[in-house]
Amino acid sequence: MTKFIDFYFDFSSPYAYIGYKEIKKLEKKNSFKIKFMPIFLGGLHNAAGITPAAFIKLKSKYMIEDTKLVSKKKNISFHFNSYFPIKTVNFMRGVLIAEKDNSEKNFIEKIFNAIWMDGLNMNDPIVINKVLKNIDLNPEIFLKKVSDQKVKDKLRKLTDDALKKKIFGVPAFVVNKKMFWGQDRLSYAIDEIKK
Fewest Cβ atoms nearer than 10 Å: which of 94, 113, 148, 150? Predict the structure, then answer.
């Protein structure tokens, strides 16, 4: 029987990017599958009453150095995006669109890489259009689809459901109804799935 790790993420988080790269490597070596759980981190933080590290001067400075240190240690290609924070709500909705035509994995890979490996300004519509075209997506059709109320509602529901499961940040890994928060807790989730 295939076992799954629910991977809660938002492209806006450099730690989610590191967790994503790591879980992909481990998926190949272990007998589990990743179940991608896109959420809107800004909405989650608002609902939970959390001020993101990006908006706390000391924490944001630390986060820049820490993500560089962790990615180097784990041999993950990483560039802290100088345009951070990135507005990702449309990209998170895009995951739900990509899910429908089975291009979800490719979409997730390309958007994560554009932000955290290539350091592109994914707040700039011209840059976004180029990235979408490179994924064989028509930017106008993409924008229309991610603006659909059903897609907006689905992302909101996934975010609300995450909070109900006591998830307050990303990346979060859920196995056997147990939540492990942070890219440095992925090994704990792997241990849990082996039980």
Answer: 150
